[in-house]
Amino acid sequence: MKLTKFFAAAAIIGSTWHAASAQEMRASDAPRIAPISWWVGMNNPNVQLMVFHPDLNGRTPKIDYKGVELLKVNRVDSPNYLFLDIKIDPSAKAGDVKITFSAKGKKDLVMPYTLAARDAKQKKAQGVTNEDFIYLIMPDRFSNGDPNNDVIKNARETAMNRDSMYYRHGGDIQGVINKLDYLKDMGVTAVWLNPVLTNDMEKASYHGYAATEFYQVDPRLGTNELYRKLADELHKRDMKLIQDLVHNHVGSEHWTVKSQPTKDWLNHWDEYTNTTYKDQVLFDPYASQSDKLKMTDGWFVPSMPDLNQRTEFMQNYITQSHIWWIEYAGVDGFRLDTYAYNDADYMAKWAQDITAEYPSMTYFGETWVHGIANQAAFTEGKTINQPFDTHLQAVTDFQTYHAINKTFNEPFGWTAGVNSLYSVLANDFVYKDPTRNVVFLDNHDVSRFLSVVDEDIDKYKSGLTWLLTTRGIPQLYYGAEIAMKNFADPDGKVREDFPGGWEGDKQDKFVADGRNDVENDVFDLVKNLAVYRRENAVLQTGKMMQFVPEDGVYVYFRYNDEKTVMIVMNTNESEKSIKTNRFAERIQKYTKGWNIVSEDEMDITNEITIAGHSAVALELK
């Protein structure tokens, strides 16, 4: 059936839409179907299509395509929406499906829909494990590979100003692709980008956490095809792609917020109610229900409406979009933003649904909380007497983050200084598998570690040594390898541009000649440790043994059947000598220690002397 002139313009609703709209924003009132396409041969044959069109009222949908069955038509509060439950038989062939919407006395509406064939050769859902080293990038601030997409004319925000932390700077996906060899050479195995979906908000939308589309890469960052190319280029280098997801909220300009399908699409309040950010109420045995409700259903900020994840329509809308990106782009892992604010039952179901489709897929949640028990309560397994299993494999380990900061900013004491770090790790028994947790020194939300340690390079290098040798999955924030600094103050300077990522930059820190001696020293330390870690399983999956810190000195080991690595961290200002016979349990018959970074060799038969505020990683010989 021939489409009307109006709907011919809207025929981009199917899987071709993202290509046709590569350099523009989509109008929030444009007709559409979500997901924008699907595949034959998925493990779960069922999918729910959310259809939006201003002329759906009173129409009845029909699908006439071999192998595709329309199981149920769900009508909701808004006459402009229909939710269609369909089943795709394993025998169905890839092709273009016509969905016809009929009503007596009206001309038929036909909305095209694409069923694609799965790419059996495509790498995807490989999972990010303790064998990996994650590099976190804020795309807008890393490298501008395509100046042509710096400003999108029909976007709500068109200003670009690198002198302001709150405007866009022009970094993009092409810029990341251009620097993959730099990351590979440094030992990185997985790249995590802050959210890349369209954030068509009026201001400060560069960070990506206020999505207005679920199936479109922000045109200022690139296209869907370019994002898929990024995954392909990473896979060619034996690297992985981590996608940053936001379940909890969207931007206030999201098209389903402008025109809501159901009255309960969002968590509504009689008057604006902010979340309390008090994670404790979620597992407090004495907590009131009203406090719990404010925590989970209160809005994160006024410009980010809180999604009601208790409805099946919302659950399908969110989950299917994530499956779509794995299948379309080849995503290998997920980072889950603001995890604690989500509906716990839905998030457990989400994890099971993702794993059912992709058994090797991994995901870790942001749990910015204080307290080991608080953090562990969000992880998989019925930990700490939790009444249900979250099925969340891992978290961003804020407890070791807090502890490593105390290590270098508190004097040594019974529970202070480096004893804080020891104590946190000593409580790993509360997790089903603590080695899946993501450890970090800083990220886009907190002060850079160099500033936290008062720009003391020795302390900084000690922290980096710990990061790349402790248990878990290490994550490095972009620029940490060149000792970028600054605090998480209102100026937002922890999100400054990487020098050299823009044509015309006075300095190019991506190359050794553009870095000063200190920056090169830090870079070399990161590279030497990261490359060693990448090539030696002992720092990936090796067991860990730590010894109680004494006199400000912390010693721990990573070991397997092939190798043993001894890490010595001196948190004192002055150098310290330690007797090695205390560690005979792990040193055993080894007599030499090869410094992984400096490549020097030292005798370890009697004692080791280590400079103040320093750490060494020694492969025992």
UniProtKB/TrEMBL annotation:
The keyword Zinc is assigned to this record:
no
Give the Glycosyl hydrolase family 13 catalytic domain ranges.
136-519
The record's listing under InterPro entries reads: Cyc-maltodext_N, Cyclo-malto-dextrinase_C, GH, GH13_cat_dom, Glyco_hydro_b, Ig-like_fold, Ig_E-set
How would you classify this enzyme at the top EC level? hydrolase
Q: Which UniProt keywords apply?
A: Glycosidase, Hydrolase, Signal
CDD domains, A to Z: AmyAc_bac_CMD_like_3
What domain of life is recorded for the organism?
A: Bacteria
Gene3D superfamilies, per the entry = Glycosidases, Golgi alpha-mannosidase II, Immunoglobulins
An example molecular function term from Gene Ontology annotations: hydrolase activity, acting on glycosyl bonds
Q: Where is the signal peptide?
A: 1-22
Provide the E.C. number(s) assigned to this enzyme.
3.2.1.-
Protein known as: Glycoside hydrolase family 13 protein
Source organism per entry reads Sphingobacterium corticis
What lineage does the source organism belong to?
A: Bacteria, Pseudomonadati, Bacteroidota, Sphingobacteriia, Sphingobacteriales
